[in-house]
Amino acid sequence: YSERFSIVAFEVPVSLLAARPHAPWFELELVPWLGVGWGKAWLHEAPDWRAAPAFGASVRAMGRGRNGGVGLALSAYSLSVAQPSSLAGAVNFGTISLSLVGGLDAG
Fold it and tell me: How confident is the model at residue 85 (pLDDT cuts 50, 70, 90)?
């Protein structure tokens, strides 16, 4: 079994920032997006690409101190392609992920 897919999308981040001068800050961000994707899935021979609508969102919570930050990101997206191969029915190339995000301030 093999599958390939690509997505092109437009996103609109919405951020809520709680900050004070010379103090740690906290940010909550919602990033919904909408686009179009192309996918194919196969067992033996690769079929043609099929287009379908794609959508998803991320929710990120970040805390940052003087020299770095850490946070969590929960993301999900869906790309359901009808009959992308000889397999019966539609195939959804979507996923749900939870990520730990961190960084250091180099400046």
Answer: low
